[in-house]
Amino acid sequence: MSWLRDNLGTIVVSLILAAIVILVILKMVKDKKKGKTSCGCGCSGCAMRDTCHSHPSQEQK
Question: Could you give the number of structural domains in the chain?
Answer without folding.
Answer: 1
